[in-house]
Amino acid sequence: MSGDQLRGIVTDRDIAVRGVGAGQSPDTHVREVMTDRPVSIQGSADILEAFQTLKDAGIRRLPVLEDADLAGIITVDDLLVWLVLEFGAVMSPVAHEMAHLGFR
Fold this sequence. Notes:
By secondary structure, the protein is an alpha+beta fold. It is built from three helices and five strands. The model has no long low-confidence stretch (mean pLDDT 91).
C-alpha cells in the first residue's frame, strides 16, 4: 500500500520467478519482484465473484479491499476449503440417510 493505493503484492511465485529464478540477491527490494497493480476485490463481493475474478485473472491470491483499505487476502485454497465445507454441509444429511438405509 502507498497511502490509500494498492501498489503491489509479492507471492511465493513472484519470489521464485522474478527473485530467485531471475538470480536476484536476497537484499533485492520488494518492488523489484512484486506484481504491480494487482487485481483486487471489495469485501462486499460474494464468493462466486471472487471465484470468477481469480479464474479470469489467472491468479491464486486476491487482495480484499474495504473501500481503499487492505482488509486481507483471499486465496484459491481458502475458497476450496469453503467449497468443501459447503458440500459437506449439504451431503451430511444425505450420508446420514444412506447409512441409516444400509448403503455403504
